[in-house]
Design goal:
OB fold (Dihydrolipoamide Acetyltransferase, E2P); elongated; conserved putative lor/sdh protein from methanococcus maripaludis s2 fold; transmembrane helix; 23 strands; Multidrug transporter; 30% strand; MdtA-like_BSH
Length: 491
């Protein structure tokens, strides 16, 4: 402290140079010393980023130099051309057989099938039994065999009534014929009486002229002739009446017979009789149940056979019915070859994703070969499709009534065609093209082609390709005429 009472202050240090950093003494952050300031550290990421950028540039330069460096024997343009070549797969165009196919689904039906249906309603009173067992699917039945019957008491009563009416009518007819005979005899007597009266009158006329008899005697014979003529007219009328009676009685008999026949038909409507020798394919009734004619469902063939009382089929011949759209049906004609296979025989293979050609091979191995039997000239009202029928199937053991099948119909074939894979043909606009490799310079030539028969895996080329041409089969979608290519696979 000085003599004047003032405490001496510590000396103030001089300011450090601008390029020298002075580290402040460590003090708690909550109580910084006046006049002292902490300087923050500089971040390091700008320097790291700069180093990475330099390294990346160096790597890029090395890569560019290695890519652009021409191998021994090549100049720079050839090297660049090799780098620009597009990889393709090719196949040599060859001649071989090809078939065009139309594929669809169909249903199996017997050629001879009979849907037996009651034409009357009532309780089912009888179902045939074979060896003591009620009729069931798979049973063989004979032509004319009674298979089922519903309550027919009303129809039987009608038959009895019609039969009684016939007896009454036949009795009336017999009486009419007897009356006719009597009238015929009366007519003959009247004719004879008239002839006799006329003869007597002529004799008395002569006697009267001679004066042998009186006028009153002559007049009496004139009266006799008039009476005989009247009796003849009455007899003729009786004959005509008797003839009308016969015709009326005959009509009554005919009407009674017609009623009897109608009643017999009504009785037949209560019975199911097999019209063929065959096998019961479906039976949808049981003895004691009630049947109504409204139970029959005609919405579809499948509904029909599943609702009909009994379906009898001939197990020796089947046909397949399918419906094709107009575009496919135009190529179908009677006699074309077809292959049919049950849906379940190829379902597993189809689920595995195998190709159409493999499915057709399965159909040839496991299915049945046949021929197109008929092509309907009309279209179905609902779907506007055309119905096709396949018959002459060589194997029917595995076919089932109403079963779903796959059908292949061969609509065209060529045993000596230039065939390429379907994927080799590129459609651009309205034209079809392929690409042919020129091995001399490694480029492709775009050619316009005319396709022919399209098979399941290949297509016939009518023009634009020659056997031996090296055709691009994969990778052609990126090509144009003159594109350099590299063949990576050759078939």
């Amino acid at each position: 402290m000085t003599s004047d009472g003032i405490r001496p202050q510590p000396p103030v240090p001089p300011d450090p140079p601008a390029d020298v950093a002075v580290e402040a003494p460590s003090q708690p952050p909550s109580s910084p010393s006046p006049g002292w300031r902490r300087k923050p550290k500089k971040p390091l990421w700008p320097a790291v980023a700069l180093v990475m950028l330099v390294v990346a540039g160096w790597v890029g330069v090395k890569a560019y130099r290695s890519l652009t460096a021409a191998p021994p024997g090549e100049d720079g343009e050839d090297a660049i051309l090799n780098l620009a070549r597009l990889p393709v797969k090719v196949q040599i165009a060859q001649k071989g057989p090809i078939q065009g196919w139309v594929f669809d689904e169909g249903s199996v039906w017997p050629v001879r099938r009979r849907l037996l249906n009651f034409q009357a309603s009532g309780d089912i009173t009888y179902v045939a039994k074979l060896n003591g067992v009620e009729l069931r699917e798979g049973d063989f039945v004979a032509r004319g065999q009674l298979l089922a019957e519903i309550d027919a008491r009303r129809q039987e009563a009608s038959i009895d009534t019609a039969a009684a009416d016939i007896q009454v009518s036949e009795t009336q007819l017999s009486q009419s014929r007897a009356s006719f005979l009597q009238s015929q005899a009366s007519l003959e007597r009247a004719q004879s009486d008239l002839a006799l009266a006329e003869t007597e009158l002529r004799r008395y006329e002569n006697l009267f002229v001679q004066g042998a008899v009186s006028e009153s005697d002559r007049d009496s014979y004139i009266n006799r002739v008039d009476q005989a003529a009247a009796a003849l007219k009455t007899a003729e009328q009786d004959v005509r009446s008797a003839e009308d009676g016969i015709r009326s009685a005959e009509a009554t008999v005919n009407a009674s017979v017609a009623r009897l026949n109608e009643s017999a038909v009504d009785l037949e409507d209560t019975q199911l009789v097999s019209p063929i020798d065959g096998v019961v394919a479906y039976i949808n009734i049981r003895e004691g149940e009630y049947w109504s004619t409204q139970y029959l469902n005609t919405a579809s063939p499948q509904d029909l056979i599943e609702s009909a009382p009994i379906v009898v089929v001939d197990p020796t011949s089947f046909e397949v019915e399918l419906e094709l759209q107009a575009g496919d049906a135009d190529d179908i004609a009677a006699g074309q070859r077809a292959y049919v296979v049950l849906e379940e025989d190829v379902s597993q293979a189809q689920a595995a994703g195998i190709g159409s050609q493999d499915l057709l091979d399965i159909a040839k191995q496991r299915g049945s070969g046949g021929r197109v039997f008929a092509v309907s000239p009309s279209q179905t009202p609902g779907s506007r499709g055309t119905e096709i029928t396949i018959r002459d199937l060589d194997r029917v053991r595995n076919l089932k009534v109403g079963g779903r099948v796959y059908v292949w119909v061969e609509v065209a074939s060529d045993r000596n065609a230039v065939v390429l894979p379907i994927g080799a043909v590129v459609t651009r606009g309205q034209a079809s093209h392929i690409f042919v490799v020129n091995e001399a310079d490694g480029t492709v030539q775009q050619r316009r082609v005319t396709p022919g028969i399209e098979g399941l895996a290949g297509v016939e080329i009518l023009s634009g390709v020659e056997p031996g041409d090296l055709v691009v089969t994969e990778g052609q979608n990126r090509l144009v005429d003159g594109t350099p290519v590299e063949i990576v696979s050759r078939n």
